[in-house]
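Objective 1b: paired records.
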Amino acid sequence: MIARSNMNQLSDAITGNTTASSIDIAKEKQKIYWTEETEAAVREYLALDYNHLQGKYDAYIKRQAASGNYDPTIDDGHAAELQANIKKSLGDKIQLKKEIIFRSRIRAPLNRLIENIIFKFKLFRYDIDVKTLHNDCMSHVYEKFYKFDPDQNTKSFSYFGTIAKHYLQNKKKSIDAMKSVNLNYDDHSEEVDSMFGDDGGESQASDEIMDLFNHMILAFEKNMNNKALNDNDKKVLDSILELFKSHGHDDVEHDSPDVSKALTAWQKSKRKSDVLDDNKYSKGNIFDFISDRSKLSKGDMSKSLTKLRNLYKEKRKDFYNKSPKN
């Protein structure tokens, strides 16, 4: 008769079912990629590496000097052995041996380690693909490889894993922060649009625009001492005032050459049907002008523009409420 356990195995094979114990075993096997053999390979590699050996020699001499035991006139067996190994590590045969160890016994598990960290902690980046991200991290870990010290009773798996994780996290944080700053204008472009007359595609005749600009100039000048505005708000408001004052006026004296250059983006409307030209009146140019004049970061400018937009809407509403009805 067939034993019960064998019958169960046969049944599983026929039906395609997998027992819980076999699943656990399969998962356990998947995790085993950094073995004691890998740890041994790392130790062998480092014993042949010039940078690692030089680092150990420098650290040893430093400890001896700190303890008062260092005397260059007296032979030190350990220091002499390190120096001999350092010299030997520069040989072509040693270099080849070291490369073979890395390629055949270390590279595959190290690749797997970095791959697992990327996917486990979701350390992807929007600017590069996963393969490039992986290779970039691999290069970084390899550059730091020589700093691992097996004599400290630590596992190279944990050491290299920590280096890889911190590198990927810091890079992602830096790139995400940069993306946030770069997208900050896009997120707040409506403040610039509405602040400078682009209100939902509405067109206004040039004389009405100039009347509105003059109204806003007076309103903004009165608010330069508004206690509700902080220093950053006032710097941005000062820049906006300069643009408002200069719009449509050829004889304005500017207090900075940068102002005149920036104002070339403005169209000088002469006819009733003229409106602000989007190609010249670029919101990007305006944003850059405010940045140059205020010396603020894009994030700080966006915060101030959000606040000033509300002031603009309020004063613009006052202007149209007071204007004669058609």
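Objective 1b, second protein:
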Amino acid sequence: MPAFRRDPAAPKSRHRLHRLAGGAVRRLPAPRLVVLLVAVAAILALTPYLLVPLYRFIDPVSTPMLWRYATGARVERVVVPLSHIAPALRLAVIVAEDGSFCRNHGIDLGAIREAMQQSDENIGESRGASTITQQTAKNLFLWPGRSFVRKALEFPLALWLNLMLPKRRILEIYLNTAEWGPDGEFGVEAGARWAFGKSARELNAYQAAELAAILPNPVARSARNPSPIVRRLAGVYERRASDYGGLDACVRSP
């Protein structure tokens, strides 16, 4: 019976195959990691769009609130329905922040063009081109500060908010998530109590205008101890609210 003879090339072949297979195994995690990162990014990008329809019924929190919760900072917030907020305040905020709120679809291209054409001396007092819907999108899902990346994310979110939620609900969410004081006062009820010691439903037209005047920076501006610029802007907004009382027609009670 002939003796069994091992092919001398066989071990080398098996070694070569093992080496190739091992190299393939070592390279597999990289594509998997890329797929995982893409999947995570897609989930993060889509989550706001999935959450927005739920906000018809659920009162959301803002990203600044979440950050303060995470860092142990103070958060004072009392959620109130729009019907428990003084009509003068609703109108003052629309006058100050987004005069086309009832007409636009979440963004205002005309306001964007005007903001880009503003002279340097007016920039300090300007409100920029963000609509109330854009600011709501930023408060709920994005971060403060100015950047092209944030704006690029903000635009489609604002359009989606406007598509999925009625104007009345968008304003209600905005008033309950915006920052209204220097020490974690979120929502207009907490802001009214801090500034005037009364509920948001009890504010008169001038107090409402003062609160609207601090919205660009409630840490630097105060309705409790109003500076000359806050007083001047409050007077402007009170007069405009009187002259253009129909700007809040879309958020009035049916």
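Confidence is low (pLDDT under 50) at residues 20-25, 119-124. The chain has twelve helices and two strands.
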